[in-house]
Amino acid sequence: MDLFEHEARDLFEKHGVPVPRGRVAADPGGARAAAAAWGGPVVVKAQVKTGGRGKAGGVRVVPTADDAEQAADDILGMDIKGHTVHRVLVTEAGEIAEEYYVSFLLDRAARTFLAMASVEGGTDIEEVAASRPDALVRVPVNPLDGVDAASVAAAFPAGVRAEAAEVVEKLWAVFVAEDCTLVEVNPLASTPAGIVALDGKITLDDNAAFRRSASFDEASGSEALEREARAKGLNYVKLDGDIGVIGNGAGLVMSTLDVVAAAAAEAGARGPANFLDIGVVRLDGNNVTEGRRILAEAAHPLVTVVATMDDAAREAAKLAIAEG
């Protein structure tokens, strides 16, 4: 389960990770009150579980409380990649000397945990990894031994390494104590007050949901469809595209998403709109002929039967473009 930025910030603060003062607001007046309480410039940020907020106009740095109120009024209700903004996070803005990147994640390929760090924070880290892989330090983490914070902090300038190592230790504590599969800070900023986590992303392990309060899950589950699917025992995640995907088994659904995304990119369409694993459905097997006959006789105008997954992905991309 992905958390909102303000929820990640609260967990960071709980474990001693330095963060700027912040307050969540559901209306422009709340944003104004937060900015007025602190004085000085603030950052008003849309709270949605997707990237690209800044490019969409969902992040504003403003100098006064009046400006914070106006920024919140502009941002609330905004649609960012299919996600409606219902709340904003207002945080103090400060002087930034340098921006870094640090994260902990579950490395499924290596079947272990991985720490990553870079001096190129504040940017798209996937682009950094693809174009300048040497700029990203990767440190495997043995869960029994814990993180070698000094090795992770070695990615940063010498003058901040000791302080950064302390922050790395605290982020690892967040990762372990809160049952996370991802803890990411981008940027981790060097400021006159020291190292500060300016923006964070956290994904919680759904397998550990029994250890969390139901109210926490409900608060973070912003999408009504996600809550409804969870209540019915289905695994649904809203994505940013236009092509719905229903699959059988998480592995098959992930593979289907990849095929659909590739076909959509080739056709100039947006990719998958969701991840939905509904359990056991077989369209190919011992009774494939009978299954295809039933589908053909149903003659449903919204159902198209094709022979292969590649054909299905291409057809879905065409339909998505046609529906515009």
TrEMBL record:
Taxonomic superkingdom: Bacteria
InterPro entries: ATP-grasp, ATP-grasp_succ-CoA_synth-type, ATP_grasp_subdomain_1, Succ_CoA_ligase-like_bsu, Succinyl-CoA_synth-like
PROSITE patterns registered for this protein in UniProt: ATP_GRASP
Cofactor annotation: Mg(2+)
One GO BP annotation of this record: tricarboxylic acid cycle
Ribonucleoprotein as UniProt keyword: no
SUPFAM superfamilies xrefs: Glutathione synthetase ATP-binding domain-like, Succinyl-CoA synthetase domains
Every ATP-grasp domain range: 9-215
UniProt keywords, alphabetically: ATP-binding, Ligase, Magnesium, Metal-binding, Nucleotide-binding, Tricarboxylic acid cycle
Pfam family, one: ATP-grasp_2
Family under the similarity heading: Belongs to the succinate/malate CoA ligase beta subunit family.
Protein name in UniProt: Succinate--CoA ligase subunit beta
Organism (species): Amycolatopsis balhimycina DSM 5908
Source taxonomy: Bacteria, Bacillati, Actinomycetota, Actinomycetes, Pseudonocardiales
